[in-house]
C-alpha cells in the first residue's frame, strides 16, 4: 500500500479512528526536506503494509489538521496509536532513522 493522502475532512477517519498505527507526515509541495523524505515514506508504507499506515497531509490545502496538531514547521511527523499521539519528530531524516523511529514507537 502506498501512502494515503489525508485531508482536514478525512483526518479523524483515516488517522484517529484507524485500527492500526498511523504515521502522519505534514508536508507541502514547496518544502525541500519534505520532498527529501517522500520516497523513503513511500518505501516504508510498503514495508510496513498491514502493520502501519503512512498518511500525508498537505498543509497548504489542509491547514486545519496542521493547526490542530500545533504544526509550526514541516516536515512534521506524528505517530498515532489508538487515536492518540505516541511520538513525533520534526525535520528530514534518513530512511533508516525513520524506520527505527516507527518500529520503536509502535
Automatic annotation (TrEMBL):
Gene3D superfamilies: Glutaredoxin (3.40.30.10). This is Thioredoxin. Belongs to the thioredoxin family. The keyword Transport applies. Disulfide bonds join 31-34. InterPro entries: Thioredoxin, Thioredoxin-like_sf, Thioredoxin_CS, Thioredoxin_domain. The active site is at 31 (nucleophile), 34 (nucleophile).
Amino acid at each position: 500500500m502506498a501512502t494515503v493522502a489525508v485531508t482536514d475532512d478525512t483526518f479523524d477517519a483515516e488517522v484517529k479512528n484507524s485500527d492500526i498505527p498511523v504515521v502522519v507526515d505534514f508536508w507541502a509541495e514547496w518544502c525541500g526536506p519534505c520532498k527529501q523524505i517522500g520516497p523513503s515514506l513511500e518505501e516504508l508504507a510498503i514495508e510496513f503494509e498491514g502493520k502501519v499506515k503512512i498518511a500525508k497531509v498537505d498543509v497548504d490545502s489542509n491547514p486545519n489538521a496542521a493547526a490542530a496538531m500545533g504544526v509550526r514547521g514541516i516536515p512534521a511527523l506524528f505517530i498515532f496509536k489508538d487515536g492518540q499521539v505516541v511520538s513525533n519528530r520534526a525535520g528530514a531524516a534518513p530512511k533508516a532513522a525513520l524506520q527505527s523511529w516507527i518500529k520503536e514507537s509502535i
